[in-house]
Amino acid sequence: MKHLLVLIILVVGTISVVFGQDTTPKPTPFAVSKHPFTYEGRQLIVGQSIGNLEKEYRLLEDGGIYRRINSAKELEVLGNQTPRNIEMAFKSLKDIDFEKLEFQHPSRISYFLIYKKGKKESKVSWGDPKHPAPEGAVRVYKAFMGMIPKEMRF
Q1: Is the CB of residue 43 less than 8 Å from the CB of residue 117?
Q2: DSSP 11-74
Q3: N or C: which end of the chain has fewer CB within 10 A?
């Protein structure tokens, strides 16, 4: 029952995140920022690694959404999220107990979630088929990627 409730919340949250995005025109090419590197509030970072190529997307507690490829010194600005969607995204992390979960099983193609607050960072990575990913991490990853429009993905 609890899992069904969490799934319903994530689905509703994903739908509201997609339709609740700021509709102001996005700059083309994307503006860049170093702000996420110095931001002291909470950050949710999701990404994928394929060999030496790493793509990441960040949601900051202040609403900013960013992306970068590999270890770029600046992030591209994708836009902003509403306060309600920000709250729902960070609440979804309660399904993943970052404090207790030690799950680092990357592979040639890997996925990751990072919860960051100030300088403290907790990471979960998966991709090795011998070690199935925690269900909560996969749900959060998919819900997060669902709010990034396809035309804004790498």
Answers
A1: yes
A2: HHHHHHHHHTS--SPPPSSPPEE-HHHH--SEEEEEEEEETTEEEEEEEETTSEEEEEETT-SS
A3: N
Provide the whole-model pTM.
0.77
Residue 6 parent element (H or E): helix 2-19
DSSP state of 79: E
Q: Domain ranges for the chain, please list them.
A: 2-22+29-152
* Tokens read off for 28: 């083309």
Residue 97 CA to residue 122 CA, distance in Å, equals 10
Tell me: domain 2-22+29-152, CATH 3.30.1560, correct? yes
- Name the strand (E) or helix (H) holding 2: helix 2-19
8 A C-beta contact, residue 114 and residue 122: yes
